[in-house]
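ligand=magnesium ion
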Amino acid sequence: MKFENIMISIGIEGTAHSIAIGFVKQNKNKCDVLSNLIKTYHPKKGGIHPREAANHHAENVSMLIKKSLEEAKINYSDIDLISFSKGPGLGPCLRTAATASRALSLSLKKPLIGVNHCVAHLEIGTGTLDKCRDPVLLYTSGANTQVIAFAEGKYRVFGETLDIGIGNCLDKFGRSVGLDFPSGPTIEKLAKKGGKYLKLPYSIKGMDIAFSGLLTAAQQYYEKGERLEDVCYSIQETTFAALTEVTERAMAHTEKNQVLLGGGVAANNRLREMVSIMAKERNATCFVPSKDLCVDNGAMIAWLGLLMYNSGVRMKIEDSLIDQRFRTDMVDVTWRE
Ligand code: AMP
Ligand code: MG
């Protein structure tokens, strides 16, 4: 890995429900997180409304930058690079974060880099966790569910959801039975009190997974009077087993012996347990970043921007457009040998 001497990067993340600001500093080839603050938009009713979420981000971004600077104990003049999430994500949210980033770049006269959100989830693991070098990433968040690994010069998606993200599946189920958003943590608590396994569709197609059939079936069990605890338990057992299976197959195919978890659903202890058992059985290592680095956060955006900039990537303001459908394998990986 070659490095120029750009040191401190701010990351502005705004792909979906959260606006997040992080500062990181390069420490040899590792990443020191100086601060990492997140503010999440909670819809009053229903799911995320993109325009409302974007308004929330616009209202909070400058306050969050100030707070994050304070926490990092640095000033605006210490910032060397402005990194932001270019995509994938919700258009209005992405545009808000990108606009704030461009304004900061112009006023501080510092370079700007737009980064891929999914790749950032992976690189924050290799940047902050000792010995985590070349993992298969199981990225499980609200909107995204992908199994990603580096192969032949690119980060490639080995498997992904064919319909909704796993977090979205949990949240949709939760909403239909009256749980608050986000429902993942409550479903985890309820699942611990369940134990009767209700058969649900286990749909893996090739290396991809589908969740919407399972979601409907789970809702039907609940409507027919099955205990909510048992339905939650069955949802977790089925979806997490499918995610673990696809991850294991990607590890076998790429011959990698490290697995990394990322995304909000990686906070779930049952998912962690299943993936750890799988890793142990293959003599592989399972890595889980701290919770604030697993969820959508600014530090991961800051770090990937730094890796890109220091490997020679440059971006003009006029080329800093967002890309709602920015695919993981579209990224030119310049920072790895
Ligand atoms: P992200 O989109 O990566 O910020 O992650 C948000 C998603 O993570 C939401 O769908 C949440 O329901 C889900 N989530 C958060 N904590 C947990 C948990 N303990 N178990 C399952 N899902 C969770
Ligand atoms: Mg994410």
